[in-house]
């Protein structure tokens, strides 16, 4: 999912919102949001420091505040990077040939989000907070070719491997922030979001099949880690 797909999804959400407007009665409201987040710390999983997204919103204005729900998409890209082959596990007594060994990877996060929020209007702004339920998928593309140094030894190995790892699941991310009106029906939100996701890393174990010159070894596995990464998010929205 690329940036242009986010824009297309945003246009689709706008049409959904227009349809919701026709259904609107009393204190119900609906709207559209485009948002982006910037990661504070730490830098994890070779991902970019930002994410983008869009959402359609529906809610109800009670006497004590507003309750709303948002259905949206989120995309956090990553850049191509090289994994340090020297730090890989090697069960052979034949060390890596660093001249010919390489492991290239790329990570990203994408998926659907569902937010529930409570808003309390103040004099010049609105305080808000809630939870984001994410059906987010961590995707890693990997391709490697690692070789032993001693080609004449029985312990010589050459491992080639490639593939895609997709790790998904339900995650819950808390957020708090403020909303400031800028026009009659337009507003800007600033939220502090603890983005929760599960990261996957393909671990290659070299030299497990001595004499293997073209194939993936049998001891490779996927390492999984849970993350809770703080982001500052800015959203532009309007309500019908």
SSE inventory with pairings:
Layout: H1 3-23, E1 28-39, E2 50-62, E3 65-76, E4 81-82, E5 89-90, E6 102-121, E7 126-147, E8 158-167, E9 170-181, E10 186-203, E11 205-206, E12 221-239
Parallel strand pairs: 5-11
Antiparallel strand pairs: 1-2, 1-12, 2-3, 3-6, 4-6, 6-7, 7-8, 7-9, 9-10, 10-12
What would you say this structure looks like, in words?
- This protein has 240 residues and is mainly beta.
- It has a single domain, classed as Porin (Beta Barrel).
- 9% of the residues lie in helices and 60% in strands.
- It is built from one helix and twelve strands; from the N terminus they run αββββββββββββ.
- It has one helix at residues 3-23; strands spanning 28-39, 50-62, 65-76, 81-82, 89-90, 102-121, 126-147, 158-167, 170-181, 186-203, 205-206, 221-239.
- The strands form two sheets. It has an eight-stranded antiparallel beta barrel. The protein has a two-stranded parallel ribbon with strand order 5-11.
- A hairpin with a 4-residue loop joins strand 6 (102-121) and strand 7.
- The radius of gyration is 24 Å and the shape is rod-shaped.
- Residues 3-26 have low confidence and may be disordered.
């Amino acid at each position: 999912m690329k940036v242009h797909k986010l824009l297309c999804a945003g246009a689709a959400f706008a049409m959904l919102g227009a349809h919701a407007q026709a259904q609107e009665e009393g204190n119900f409201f609906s709207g559209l949001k485009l948002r982006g987040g910037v990661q504070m710390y730490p830098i994890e999983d070779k991902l970019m420091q930002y994410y983008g997204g869009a959402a359609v919103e529906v809610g109800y204005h009670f006497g004590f505040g507003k309750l709303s729900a948002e259905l949206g998409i989120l995309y956090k890209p990553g850049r191509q990077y090289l994994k340090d082959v020297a730090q890989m596990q090697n069960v052979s007594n034949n060390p890596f040939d660093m001249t010919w060994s390489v492991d290239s990877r790329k990570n990203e996060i994408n998926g659907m989000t569902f937010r529930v929020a409570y808003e309390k209007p103040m004099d010049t702004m609105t305080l808000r907070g809630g939870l984001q339920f994410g059906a987010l998928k961590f995707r890693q593309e990997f391709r490697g070719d690692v070789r032993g140094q001693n080609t004449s030894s029985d312990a010589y190995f050459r491992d080639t491997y490639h593939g895609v790892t997709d790790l998904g699941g339900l995650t819950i991310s808390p957020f708090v922030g403020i909303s400031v009106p800028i026009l009659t029906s337009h507003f800007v939100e600033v939220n502090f979001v603890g983005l929760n996701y599960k990261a996957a890393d393909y671990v290659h174990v070299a030299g497990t099949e001595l004499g293997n010159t073209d194939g993936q070894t049998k001891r490779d596995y996927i390492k999984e880690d849970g993350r809770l990464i703080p982001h500052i998010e800015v959203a532009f929205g309007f309500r019908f």
